[in-house]
Amino acid sequence: DLLGHPYLTLSARTLLIQGVSILINVFPIKACKCCPEVYIGKEGHPITCHGYRRRAKDRVHEWIDGGLNDVRVPVETFHLHMFQEVIEHHQRFDFDRVPAVVDLCWQAGAD
Description:
Elements: H1 5-26, E1 29-32, E2 38-40, E3 48-49, E4 59-60, E5 63-65, H2 68-71, E6 76-78, E7 97-99, H3 100-107
Helix pairs in contact: 1-3
């Protein structure tokens, strides 16, 4: 019985977001400006940052206050309707994106 799974997935996603939001209010989160590393605590660690491909490497992390999207990285997709043309590169800002999990649940039958 797969009919209930999209609804269970959406409610679990909502519960996860609420839980992480509550934890962020209790525990300070630091995120590095130069890489995807996240630190939970008042001050970040002094370990070397390896940065992204084109950025300067082997330097100290630049810690800023983090948030929900640093802990739970959003993966978004374009929501295409049946028989809709493919979205071309130059059109990518003309269409809304939705979280990929939400789109999969919608395709599986959730409203």
